[in-house]
Design a protein that fits this description.
D-Maltodextrin-Binding Protein, domain 2; 18 helices; 41% helix; 455 residues
């Protein structure tokens, strides 16, 4: 229908030119060659696009802190594509996803190009919010991928369609306050066992699944898995007696951590107050020595630790739980194109080309500086030998070390139910007050039994 409408408009324009064409009576400037005027009935020649070839306009989502990088990318892009327009929409990535969830992708507040965490790919696909992109062509232009499908990019392929392009890889790491460690008598050159220190020494909000999986992954607990046949299962529906000993040990360590929090009377088991409590205690002079966070929190952690003077960054496995190293996920984000642009060749070409410019590996260091994100296709030595602060180099080094040993993040849509199921059940310990680890586990089991009835 769109093509038919375009042809009709073109025909109307032709007829209009034919009907209205008259001789220009403006006198010629002496010595100036008169411009050729199309003969009556002829169309005006179309203006050739400037070198670069891309035309049209798109909107692109960028978080507030990302703007310096995105603005520089726009400037580079339009310099070689002067007939193209790229408008930035300042919005948090999750805020824009909320708009899609509450309306749909056609909402004008949703950008043509936006960023998503990898685990949202299946849900957005089911909601028909994403347009397939020529990811392999973008990858060829960007470069640096030894095996595109073996990495994050392959996870964005659903039924043969690439629905996102890798933006970054991520996982959690350990931040340590050296001054607090000295006061507590903790040697940061050695592994710290959660069971062997005070609960105030290591800050992990285990009731929040984003952090909790670092604990459960240590012993291979599958909160929600999918077998080869596509059937869903959860270790948390097993009877306590049937749970493997190493997984029981993980739950026991969590329970002991909870008991320590209750005895200390602090806010670590309060989903609202815990974050402020952690900030206070991690500050130099506080009681906390180690804290599990992401590379994007480096500025905040540095500020709490005497502007970086007391800060040390370590791989996530520097803390063990029942003898097993903490282990997060191979997480990541992608850049996507709004489904409303599917079939619009001009916008799709512009969107794909701009994604390639955003992920231009020549600017990987700037990308990290303003977004805290590490490009998957950039070798570690580019960061470690580049013009970055020593602190940033240490962060990148430890993220990559932690990422190498991490399991893949589950991306199937059903995993979304785990977030609240885990959080509500573990937080319930504060009111249920389980007498032992088995009773604490049974509170989790009851919640997961109910969750699994949906599948």
């Amino acid at each position: 229908m769109k093509k038919i409408t375009s042809l009709v408009l073109a025909l109307m324009l032709t007829l209009s030119v034919a009907a209205c064409g008259t001789k220009d009576e403006t006198p010629e400037t002496p010595g100036e060659t008169p411009a050729e005027t199309p003969a009556e009935g002829e169309e005006e020649p179309e203006e050739e696009p400037a070198e670069g070839g891309l035309t049209g306009s798109i909107t692109v989502q960028a978080e507030e802190g990302w703007l310096p990088y995105y603005e520089a990318a726009v400037e580079r892009f339009v310099a070689v594509n002067p007939d193209a327009e790229v408008e930035l929409i300042t919005s948090g990535a999750m805020d824009m996803l909320d708009v899609i969830d509450n309306t749909d992708a056609t909402n004008e507040d949703v950008a043509d190009v936006f960023s998503i965490p990898a685990d949202r790919i299946y849900g957005l696909n089911e909601n028909e919010a994403l347009a397939p992109i020529d990811a392999m062509a973008i990858a060829d232009k960007v470069g640096g991928f030894d095996n595109y499908d073996a990495g994050l990019g392959g996870n964005f392929n659903i039924d043969g369609d690439y629905l996102a392009f890798p933006m970054n890889i991520e996982t959690l790491i350990i931040y340590a306050n050296k001054a607090n460690a000295e006061t507590a008598g903790i040697d940061l050159t050695k592994t710290v066992e959660l069971n062997d220190v005070k609960v105030s020494d290591v800050l992990i909000p285990v009731w929040n699944a984003w952090y909790g999986v670092a604990v459960t992954n240590s012993s291979g607990i599958e909160l929600l898995g999918m077998d080869d046949s596509g059937a869903l299962f959860s270790d948390m529906t097993k009877d306590w007696a049937d749970l493997e000993p190493e997984k029981q040990a993980t739950i026991e360590a969590m329970y002991n951590y909870y008991k320590g929090v209750q005895e200390a009377g602090n806010d670590m088991w309060d989903s609202s107050a815990a974050w402020g409590h952690m900030d206070t205690e991690f500050t130099t002079g506080g009681t906390a020595v180690m804290r599990v966070e992401g590379p994007w929190d480096s500025g905040k952690m540095s500020g709490l630790a005497s502007d970086g003077a007391d800060l040390e960054v370590l791989p996530i496995g520097s803390v063990t739980v029942a003898g097993k190293p903490l282990n997060h996920w191979k997480g990541g984000w992608g850049l996507v194109v709004n489904s409303r642009n599917e079939g619009d060749d001009e916008k799709m070409a512009l969107a794909e080309a701009f994604i390639a410019e955003l992920m231009n590996t020549d600017y990987a260091l700037d990308f990290f500086k303003y977004t805290g994100k590490i490009m998957e296709n950039v070798p570690a030595d580019v960061y470690l030998n580049g013009d970055m602060s020593d602190a940033d180099k240490i962060i990148v080094e430890n993220v990559l070390a932690s990422y190498a040993d991490a399991p893949a993040r589950p991306l199937f849509t059903e995993w979304g139910q785990v977030w609240s199921t885990w959080e509500n059940s573990v937080l319930s310990w504060a009111s249920v007050q389980p007498a032992d680890a088995e009773a604490a586990y049974n509170a989790i089991k009851a919640a997961f039994d109910a969750m699994m009835l949906n599948y």
